[in-house]
Amino acid sequence: MAGAFLPSAELTASGRPVLKADEVECSLLSAVDLLSDDTPTFPHLKSGVVILTTLRLLWIPPENTSYASTCCFIPLSAVQNILSAKKSIKSMFQSPRIRFQVAATPEGGVSEKGGSRSLVITLVVRGKTDPDSFLGKFWDAWRGRAWEASGSALREGEGSSSGSLAVRMPVVGLAGILRKEQEMWESTDKSLQDAFQDLNALMSKAKEMVMLAEKMRLKLLSGSNNQTSGAEDEEMGTKEMQDWLLSVGIVSPVTKESAGALYHQQLSRQLADFIKIPLERAGGMINLIDVYCLFNRARGTELISPDDLLQACSLWEKFDVPVMLRKFDSGVMVIQSKTHSDEEVFARIASLIMKPEALANGISAGDAARTLGVAPAVAKEYLLAAEGKGLLCRDVSPDGFRFYINLFPELNQEDIYLVKDHSRYSTWTRAVLSR
Q1: Hey, which bits of 22-113 come out as E strands?
Q2: By CB neighbour count within 10 A (0-12 exposed, 13-18 middle, 19+ buried), where does 14 fall?
Q3: Helix, strand, coil percentages for the chain (3-state, nearest 5)
Q4: Integer Cα distance of 213 and 221 in angstroms
Q5: pTM over 0.85
Q6: Strand pairing partners for 254?
Q7: How far apart are alpha carbons 51 and 32 in whole angstroms?
Q8: Are 345 and 359 in contact (CB under 8 A)?
Q9: pLDDT tens for residues 55-91?
Q10: Collapsing DSSP states into helix, strand and coil, what is residue 397?
Q11: Cα(80)–Cα(119) distance, rounded to whole angstroms?
């Protein structure tokens, strides 16, 4: 729809924009129309969400439209001027409008390369948000000119890499690997020393440290994919380093200040994107308390409350995201993938319960947790669910719960011998049921 006039942007599975490495969200507006009166053929985009970042102005369409999967943006580098609002009696009865001038091609298309023609874009704010606050942050982001710093950093990186190839010999052997690791840690140590000089410097360096951690994680991942052989200890150390770097931080966490009325909605989408990898590592299900700790650790200083987390998870029912909130009969709440199947878990439990030791002594939640690779609390819920399906029966003792295979479904009702002595029969029945 808008592809001929505005460049498209990529969205995550939850509908959040995929930000660039050096891009940070600044503000959001809901129910915004994007149009241009200068070009009759320019599309009239209605009732979308506008996200302002340090590099772009993104427009995300509503979900109930045929073009819901498309997202377009206007690069801030193409903005020539932000026009002041015209105050009149008529404007008092209209929806607030934000107008700015961009560089466009003769055909009216907007791109990062700019163009020879000037085009006026209008944002019509129809939602219950604060357009004045958004306009102030729009001015700050445009005056900050973060795209120039990003471009210069990229050119310096390309220049330094080409220069190093010209004067350095290829690094080979164990000595070369040690030298590269030493250089990397020296650079990291210097960044840490600069960051911890005072609190203001720490806050300004936080984004840089998250980007550094992400680069290190990607480097480790690429190294493990290319490496064909290696010691077991080194592989375990690499995996631990990847897990640690994975939870270092989110570059641009959703906050109440930036999202406003859309805070819980955008927080829900960001959480759905964040929890994808931890869910894969946890076997498709993870306790809500663990999610709260992981997500807050990744957000750094922008902590959220348990109520915010629960409300964000509850909104997944309205969005097309690959995760869901599940509540067991005991009240334990977990987050699980929609592709997660309880039948596969029950099959693994059935194979575990048929082992000779389990047939004699039963299994506990800890035994099931080690087999399934989940937390003991979640393993207990699985065992209780398997009991509800008739796969297991339990024995409750001062030592806790022990689960045994349920043999009653295997009995043939036609071969059951009815004991006439009801007292002996009831005693036997209670003894079997207690197991």
Answers
A1: 25-35, 45-53, 56-60, 71-75, 79-82, 97-104
A2: buried
A3: 50, 20, 30
A4: 12
A5: no
A6: none
A7: 10
A8: no
A9: 999 999 887 665 555 789 999 999 999 988 776 666 6
A10: strand
A11: 9
